[in-house]
Amino acid sequence: MLLTAAFLTFIVFFLTNLQPNLEKLAKTEANFRMSDQDVTNWLHNRGYDKNVFKKYGQWLGVLPSPKITGQDGKVYSRCSRPTILPEDAPSYCGLLQGNWGFSTAFKDEVGAIISKRLGLTGWLALAVLLTMVPAALIVGVVAGMREKSKTDRALSTFSIATTATPEYVSSILFIVLLASSKVGLSPLFAEWGLIEGKTIFKGTAASAMDNITFQNFTLPVAALAIYGMGYIARMTRASMAEVMTAQYIRTARLKGASFKSIVLKHALRNALIAPFTVIMLQIPWLLTGVAIVETIFNYKGIGWTLVNAALSNDIELLLGVSVVAVVVVLVTQLISDIGYAFLNPRIRVN
Description:
350 residues; MetI-like fold
């Protein structure tokens, strides 16, 4: 896991520190009308023209950070916002020392920004999981129990349709149908007196950052849940259909066990082995894949932060978000492996 994390973060570090990105950073921070020589000097004075491996080591905190003395005589480094005396600036100041850098776009510490935005996305992801997983399992189990029936075909068609519809499309459709005062269902409901306000739901989730309500949080949750549930439902359906044809299920039927008992006691646990891995993979997707939905609904979570950091060429913030994404992916994969072994005794035996 440590090797994987180091490799992935180095890739992101290398891409964000390409020369065009550094030139854009220099002009953004100093002056857009800077000459090429001024850009070169600006990058040199701040250590951006060093070897990429050396810069990566400084970012991690395994190599000493460069110290720069400004025209005012104050000492600047990665972690010293300025200090008056040179000895006050620490030599090693990187990720391992708890310093995530300083955001050039938000003018704040990267660690503070990520902790706040990650909490907002955490509430959104939790709501999506609590909605998506039970609905997907129910759809998949019902379809798998009645393989090749009309119910199976209808639910499978629904699952494929939801998976084939990107979350940004469903977000726009939900806003038009349910959060517009001029078109969709809201004008009709308002005319009939079924709703108090002008719209059924709010087309923005900005207010949900302070106070989550049913009106301001339903649409982003629904857009993400509907997109993710189709894939889980299809995996559950395939796994359930395979389990229902197993020999031990036939034996249970011959012994006179009820259909409900067969499904709940024998088939369901084995059918959930494959979907469990898929469900765990949805957590990393919810962390970084919500960028479009959070941007559409103006919900300033980690996805919204990632988009704005990319647009602003905020290298330190991009690296901080990438670290969080890598850690979440690796941890969820570990939990998935442990859970898979718990659900499948044959893995433990092997």
